[in-house]
Amino acid sequence: EVDWFSLASILFLLMFAPLIVYYFIMSCDQYQCSLINPLIDLLTGKKHLSDIWDKTPALTYRAAGIYTLWVAFQVFLYVFIPDFCHKFLPGYIGGVQEGAVTPAGVVNKYQINGLQAWIITHVLWFANVYYFHFFSPTIIFDNWIPLLWCANILGYAVSTFAMIKGYFFPTDAKDCKFTGNFFYDYMMGIEFNPRIGKWFDFKLFFNGRPGIVAWTLINLSYAAKQQELYGQVTDSMILVNVLQGIYVLDFFWNETWYLKTIDICHDHFGWYLGWGDCVWLPYLYTLQGLYLVYHPVQLGTANTIGILMLGFIGYYIFRTTNHQKDLFRRTNGNCKIWGKKPEYIECSYMSVDGTKHYSKLLTSGFWGWARHFNYTGDLMGSLAYCLACGFEHFLPYFYIIFMTILLTHRCIRDEHRCFSKYGKDWKRYTAAVPYRLVPGIF
Ligand code: NDP
Predict the structure, then answer these.
(1) Where would a tag sit more exposed on the chain, N or C end, judged by fewer CB atoms within 10 A?
(2) Could you tell me the distance, in angstroms and rounded to a whole number, from the CA of residue 291 to the centre of ligand 1?
(3) Is 219 left (phi over 0), alpha (psi -120 to 50) or beta?
């Protein structure tokens, strides 16, 4: 059942999320990243909506060509080049891997080759920059708004296709979820794991590529633009490239672990993931780099080191917390967390077919500090990206605000699900670990 609050939120997002993305990107293009000046111009009548719209670059054949090539290349890397990185990179888990059991009891196989796709794409990018010179490294920045229209077309097309597919030819009919509410189903998805053929998995492809592979290239393009405009790349731009680069590489290095996260394990594939991965992620997660093209902030050594430390500590917490849970679950508790045997709460749940299953909730390590300390680490890292942009404008800080809302909402959504799953065992767990994100506060 869809309650009125969920429905109102969904309608709000469907109507306004594309406008929010447009507003941010347009503000940089026309107002030097000021979010308030477009409003002042409109409210004082100095400009009309049509003036802003007329100045907005339109969709071009060039952008359509670049985008089509980009997505086609990522599809090619995903579907046709099986992973070879796991054969020579010690500690890296890639190749064919199994996902979690779906509610209908299906275990999907995935071709984990994201790290390889990322490496090949970046090697080609640098080969072009330093050797071939087929295109300018500023190509992404130079076509940023025309590319926005392409990303929207793909985002809407894939979400609409996923909905039609869910009704008429689902990959696994037993794993479909119909609420009967059109908007909810469109937004949150019907099919759990839509696929084309054996290997093209919509969730894995759209979550990771083309958006996350592009993330680091987008930042590199911003750095190249700074170089072109000012003859140098600022320390803040390098910092944003490095910190976000670590986050992206971490994502691909741990792509197999990612199969067990909420996105893949619990979310269905609809507009939220389809459009979000095509548009929201590449456009709003890269706002810091875009901002720094218009405002080339020089932080100085002390600030750079301070922000770098915050980013590293955040990353350390994020990765270690995720690793602790992964290790604990993989070994069924037969491991050491911070040098000791882990403590945990035994819990049980019933699957749809009435079978009783057993599970464990870790209460050692960072999981004893708070129930989602991995999110806390993520938020510290996100804050570091924003701080790299100084305090002159609000725009780069949108990211930390958005991430705080996203992860808090995710935390509550997840806990609601866990409570439905584990019942009184979950209550015992929340009594043992009373805080969600920050010990003693929330
Ligand atoms: P988690 O990795 O925290 O997974 C939550 C699940 O883990 C729960 O549903 C439950 O599943 C299980 N669980 C909860 N508590 C425990 C415990 N104490 N011991 C063992 N298992 C437990 O959440 P996500 O998948 O959301 O996040 C993964 C990472 O991805 C996070 O670090 C997050 O910050 C990051 N992320 C980043 C985003 C971005 O846009 N940058 C977006 C989303 C996530 P079960 O049913 O198996 O018990």
Answers:
(1) N
(2) 31
(3) alpha
- The verdict on the CB of residue 414 being under 6 Å from ligand 1 is yes
Domain containing 217: what range?
Answer: 1-298
Strands (E), 155-263: 195-196, 200-201
pLDDT of residue 386: 97
Nearest CA to ligand 1 atom 21: 361
Q: Mark which of 266, 298, 330 sits at the end of a domain.
A: 298
Provide the number of structural domains found in the chain: 2
Same-domain check for residues 285 and 271: yes
Ligand 1 atom closest to 329 (CA): 20
**416 CA to middle of ligand 1, Å?**
13
How many angstroms is it from 76 CA to the middle of ligand 1? 30
- At residue 174 the predicted structure's pLDDT band, cuts being 50, 70 and 90, is confident
Tell me the best of 367, 414, 425 to mutate to test the pocket of ligand 1, counting ligand atoms within 8 Å of each CB and taking the most. Answer: 414
Q: Tell me, what's the pLDDT at 34?
A: 96
CA angle 16, 176, 408 (to 5 degrees): 45
177 Cβ closer than 6 Å to some ligand 1 atom = no
| Tens-digit pLDDT profile for residues 149-172 | 999 999 999 999 999 999 999 998
Amino acid at 433: V
Q: Same domain, yes or no, for 361 and 239?
A: no
Q: Which helix (H) or strand (E) holds 95?
A: strand 95-101
Q: Which DSSP state fits 200?
A: E
Over the chain, what is the mean pLDDT? 94
Q: What digits encode the pLDDT tens for the residues 75-97? A: 999 999 999 999 999 999 999 99
